[in-house]
Amino acid sequence: MTTDSNATQDVDVVVVGAGLAGLAAARSLAAAGLRPLVLEKQATVGGRVRTDVVDGFRLDHGFQLYNPAYPEGKRVFDYAGLDLRPFTRGAMVSLPSRNWLVADPRNEPRAMWQAIRSPIGSVSAKLRFAWYALARERMSASEVIGQNDCTALEALRAAGIDDELTDSMIRPFLSGVFLEPDLVTSRRFMDLVLRSFVRGTPSVPAQGMRALPEQLAAALPQGSVRTSASVSSIRGTGPLQVTTDFGEVTARAVVIATDPRGVSALLDGFTAPPMNSVTTWYHRATQAPSELAGGSPVLVVDGRGPGRAGPLVNSVVVSNAAATYAPAGVALVSSSALGVHESAADDQAALTHAAALHRASTAGWELVGKFVIPDALPATPAPLNVRKEVRFGDGRYIAGDHRDTPSIQGALVSGRRAAEAVIADLAGA
Question: Residue range 330-334: average pLDDT?
Answer without folding.
Answer: 98
